[in-house]
Amino acid sequence: MYQSGDGASAFDIQIDAAEASSRGADPDSPILFPDKDLLFTADFKKSGDDLLLLGHETKAVILGYFKDERRPGLATREGAGLSGATVDALAGPDSPGQYAQATGAAAGLLAIGRVEKASGAVTVLRNGVSIDLRLGDAVTKGDVVQTGSNASLTIKFNDGTVFSLSSNARMVLNDMVYAADASANSALFTLVQGVIGFVAGRIAKTGDLKVDTPVATMAIRGTAIHTEISAFSGETRFSLLTEPDGTVGSFVLLDRTNPSRVIASITDPRVSTLLTPLAGTDPRITQVTKSTDEIRGENDLVRDLFQVFSPEPQRRGSSDPNDVPIIPVNLPEKASPPDPSQFAVTPFARERATSRDIVVPSSPTVPEAIRGRAVEDGPLTRLSALTDAVASSEAIIVLLPANLPPGVRYLAGTRSFSLDPSHPAYQHLGAGEREVVTIAYNLLAEDGTRVPASASWTVTGENDTPVAVGDRIAAVSDAGRTLLAVRSNDRDVDGDAVRVVAWTEPFEGSVFRNSSGELVFDPGNGFRALSVGQTATVSFSYTLSDTNGATDTANVTLQVLGQNDAPVAADDHIAAVDEAGQKLLAVRSNDRDVDGDAVRVVAWTGPFEGSVFRNSSGELVFDPGDDFLALSAGQTATVSFSYTLSDSNGATDTANVTLQVRGTGTFTSPSQSDSEGAVLGFNGQPVSLTVDAPSATTTSTANLGLVIGLGPVLQPQMNIVYLIDISGSTSDTFDGTPVGDLNGDGATNTVLDAEIASLIALTDRVRGLGFSSADVSITVIPFNGAADPANVTDGGAVNAATFSLGQTGDAAIANYLRDLDAGGQTNFADALRAANDRLGSLDQGGESNFLYFLSDGAGQGSIEDEIATLNDLYGATITALGVGENANLSRLDAIDNTGGASVLTSPEQIDISVLGRPLPSGTVTDIDVFVNGREIVEIGPEDLVATRNGFALNASIGELSRLAGDGNVVSATITFLSGETLSAQLNIAGALPRSTDLIL
């Protein structure tokens, strides 16, 4: 917890100014402040050399901020910040004056502006005192003006510049130099937070007007501007305003740390520019189009500003139009009452009153600070409490503070102060360091007026010699080095770092300085003769030096204590250890103890593979277990472990044991497989994928086998019925492509010849589709006036016949058709009835039925019932064909259910598309093999070898992890033409011991 100089406590944030400044590459870099909310809303307060930032919930202190004349800025991590001058103004002096109103006047402080409008709680922070502002009050350079909640303030400056502050706004009037006829006028204002608008006056046109914000500096050449600064981040919104006469100016935004660099130019009054601070880079610039309501509000602001904005002539050459001085609040004045004789009072008269001049008594001036210098440990120095101007006045009384600084005395006889720079309070000063010792007091004039005064010395530090203090160190071990912390009791009053620069050597043993600058005692072998409990004393001296070269010397006495000597455990290397069976390890055979004590193994580590235990005789035993069984003849594996040896006094030593295990035989791994099966959706074919590989490997390669099983494809069962018209009218000439005399009746190119030719061609085309003979039957039903059997013709009665598909069946069908002769009437109903009868025995359920009905179209009989049975019961597809160009299709259309009967003029015209095609077998289009997520691109479908039941593939896969504990994931995926996939996966374990030698 930090206790500030004024008693306030800050618990939340504490920053050391010197340390924070030293972190920056540039000594002028701002101090990084971690709380962006607090930085722009806090009340700043000076407490001695420290800066306090006081918020509603958070308090912070920056230690030593005011220790010297340098004032670093404060910045957030994002880059928004306040300059050192602004922080100085916000904090005010260490001992502010009493609360006062901003009325009255004093010499020396001239007004740079005046309050034109004030509403609500508006104040000015002047010399650390908060003063209420009222209409007409003056403001001066260095003031901090601020508004409270629901408050507003308008200030007009001497050059005509007008600023308007909304509620909760804060602004610093850093500087203003202005004379009406001058060309070197300048002004600098800092906007800390809130919504602030302004119109630039004459300085912007003829001089240098800059307005600083947390993120950028505005350089202005005369225009109206609106800004809004976030109180919780420093994010700033800039807006260019349109003046009442339509004039639009411009301004540029400069880098706060490099004022010569322009980061943005603002010329468009229709958009706002938002600067958001970002860490380590320029602020982010965002252009935001103004809404209608925003433009309307800005126009109202401009009208209010320009009601106040107007050029005013200066009076009597002053930089203040009203020429009224400002009273500094820390200089209270005791004014003498005015002399009544100076006033002439005219009795009341209606005509007019005579004006009178009032003479204001002059104010006492503050004497300049009295300064002197002193050197640490130097002679007494004296400073007069009075300046030369008042030293001769015996009436001046020096009023001392309650307490004087350390080493300071007041000499009443000479009305002076003396400082003893050898006082302990100043011994901490290092060479060249300075500390200002200040006495704040008051001078009491004869008329009772108190005038504050001060006297101060700048004390310059001198280097103080470090103090080396002798050391006596007991119980130093006679074996092993001992770190001697001889500097632990040494000191340097200046706080300088000290180091050992020289030392002498003891009579026995030796001393050296390690890399950390500490002295180390090494007894070597000089004290090995000491028994347990015996001691020997040696001494040496060392020289201590500070960073400025001042030195001091001290003695060190060491008492070396004889101790038990630890045993010495020697490393062992044991070869030819079998991969199976336990091995006794005689590790103690080469160990020794200089004291002759008995030694034993008390602890050991486990090797990476195999295990070690201690048997009942105290010897270590190595058990390889199953960890090395994968070694083949000629292969070896090396493992190691450490063990700890102890003597009877508990002293220990540790050594390493290396074992080389040799393999025997040849390693073989059992095979493993993984399978996945499925049924292809498009054809119902059962398929499978089997992957075969070893379950473990000691090499980086392994054989991989793939078997793809393809089961049978079940084709749909199909019944095809040929209904062929053999009535007498089919002996007429066929009006189409000549076909010859196919039935050998002596008549060429008859309708019956064309029917026979067409069905022979149809049979051949059906077989060409690839259907299996087991899946397709063809039934031929000749018909005339009757069917199955047809009426007797010249060749006798003709019965229907059913044939299988294939070359043998094709020939039988052709021979059957060639034996048909024409004769008799034509009855379509009997033909269709015969087809229904045949399908009744052929269709076992779920089969596809097709009818090809060939006729010249001249048929009789009622066909509706038979057609309904074919359609509804058997779902038959009926293709009706009128044979010959002159065929009558009227009745055939009633039979056909494929879209209407068609004329057949050539045997090749019969449509077979209604039959479809056989379902194809599944086709493997892709093989993807992965090893540990890496695709083996060399393996593809082209590597498959056909087998009786599918395909097989044998390949070698590489880049396997072969060490014990490693695993290899091998997966295979096959893709069928239908897009369906099968996958299988195996894990191949690494089996080779991780300690195997010569693994490349």
Automatic annotation (TrEMBL):
Q: Which InterPro entries does the record match to this protein? A: FecR, VCBS_dom, VWF_A, vWFA_dom_sf
Q: Where in this chain does the record put each VWFA domain?
A: 719-927
**SUPFAM superfamilies found in the cross-reference section:** vWA-like
Q: Quote the PROSITE patterns the UniProt record gives.
A: VWFA (PS50234)
| SMART domains (alphabetical) | VWA
What is the protein name stated in its UniProt record? VWFA domain-containing protein
Which species is listed as the source? Microvirga ossetica
